[in-house]
Structure formats: C-alpha cells, structure tokens
Amino acid sequence: MDLVNHLEGRLLFAVPKKGRLQQAALDLLAGSDIQFRRDHRLDIALVKNHPIALVFLPAADIPTFVGEGRVDLGITGRDQICEHEAVTPPTEDTGAEEVLDLGFGYCQLQVQVPKNGPYKEPKDLIGRNISTSFAGLSTKYFEALEAQYGGATNGDSRDSITSKQLRTKIKYLGGSVEAACALGVADGIVDLVESGETMKAAGLEAIDTVVESKAVLIRSKHPSNPELVDRIAGRIKGVIAAQRYVTCTYNIPRKILPTATKITPGKRAPTVTALDEPDWVAVNVMVEKVKIATVMDDLASCGAEDILVGHIANSR
Length: 316
Known about the structure:
Layout: E1 11-16, H1 22-31, E2 44-46, E3 52-57, H2 62-67, E4 73-77, H3 78-87, E5 97-101, E6 107-114, E7 129-132, H4 135-149, E8 169-172, E9 188-193, H5 197-201, E10 204-213, E11 215-219, H6 226-244, E12 245-253, H7 257-263, E13 271-274, E14 280-288, H8 292-302, E15 305-310
Parallel strand pairs: 1-3, 1-4, 7-8, 7-9
Antiparallel strand pairs: 2-3, 4-11, 5-11, 6-9, 6-10, 12-14, 12-15, 13-14
C-alpha cells in the first residue's frame, strides 16, 4: 500500500520513533484504543479505527513538524520544545501548544563539569568550550550568563549580547556528549540527565539546571480536525488518570465518616452509600496508587472494615 497517498483526510499524530519516550507513548496509544499495525520498514502507520495516521519521527523533530502545522498532534519531551523555541521563537500562527503533561520521561537538562576540575559555578565557564546536543538552549543560557556577569566584548552593552558576540564557544555534538570533557573537546557540557549514573561514571557533576522536562502532548495551532484532537486528548488524559489512581472501597460507621473522608477525600468527593446495617455506610473513592498502602493502614486504624482496592482500566 502506498501510505503517503492514503493520508488525505487523516489527522497526523507524531510519535517518537525510538528512544526513552517511545514505549511509554505506545502504551498510551494502546490504552486510548488507537489501533494500528506498523511495518518495521515504514515510519507511517494508518490507524484502523480512527481517521488518524501515526508518523514516527525523532523526538527532537516533532516540535518542528507540529509547530509548522505539518502534523496535528505529537508526543515529545518539553526539553525538545524549549530547544526548538530557542532557535525558532513561536509566533501567532506557528509553534506548538502544550495540551497535556503525560507524567513520564522526567529528566533535567543540566550544565555538567569535571568533578575535580577548576569550574565550580556556571560563570566559571564563560569563554570556555561547551559541548551539547542542545545548541539553541545552551546559547540562550550562556547569553544570559554573559549578560549577567559581563561577558560582553568590544564595548557591547550587557543587555545586548547575541550569539555572534558570545565569548563562550558552543559546540554541537549528536551524541555521547558526556565523553567530551574526558576527550578534551570541552571544558563543560550541557546534556540531559535522568538518574545521573552516566554522568557520575564519566566523572562529571551538575552545577546548574537549564530546563526540567517531562513528556508532553502537543498540538498545532491550526489542527485539521480540532474535534478529533480534543477526543484523543481526552482519552489520553483518562489513561493517565487510570495509571495514577486506584479505587478504594470500604465500610465504616457513619459517625466516623468525617474522619475517614479526611483520609480519602478523592479527586472530587467520595461516593457514600447507606448500608442495610443501621449507622453504617459504604465509601467508594479514588486514591493515588503510590499512597494506597498508607491510606489502607490509616483507614483500618480509624475503624474502617472490608477495605478493598480495585484497578482502574480507564477513566474520563
């Protein structure tokens, strides 16, 4: 099938083609009942049950495609959006709009230096060599740093430093940025950090954070099908809520209900139902998954009985 000629009338949805965000993004699509089959040789897949085509792109390119209106929806990291906007500032008609924080893929774009080296503060790197895969954000960061600490040359105002006047040398690397200092390519780096173990192994330490990032759902400012965009966003939001919460049901004497509802206030409010047994009620409530063990202990301590926890497959 010639997929390119089957895109007419379909909403285009960009998904990371590889990397740390891909599997979690695909899990969200599955939970949202977006059904597709992807040929491993192709970067386009037609969705079977919706007028949608998935386009598999590098996460770094997705803000460009969405921002220019070539693609309607996309999943990428906030760091990639910030990098794109540092190079191509959004206008009234261009640039991506953030729809939803997806709650995974947390990382930090940090300034890192050799642990036992001479550079202890970001200002120490002014005029030095910096290697990074985020040249736009790094340039913007050091422009502000030089403006603050007097990096301007030739009589330039501190408030008017541009990338052409930047004393700090920003060198783009496509990967393995953490090796740049050890190999003598850079005095410091600006790179993404998740656990920090890779940087520690490379003998580096963080001295500042440029951007904190998570995976986000973004949309074009002029999507081809706004109603379908909203529907898909609603489904994804429901999947995220289902992943975050469980249901908790318990029986409790009515006189203790005010204490119990302070323990389990729910997303909006608990559902309370009278039991056949006088002065007892049943409570059904959503509880954050990470808190459920402590909540069950507290409920049992205050007099709740028959405490049950249920999985949420999906929600709206």
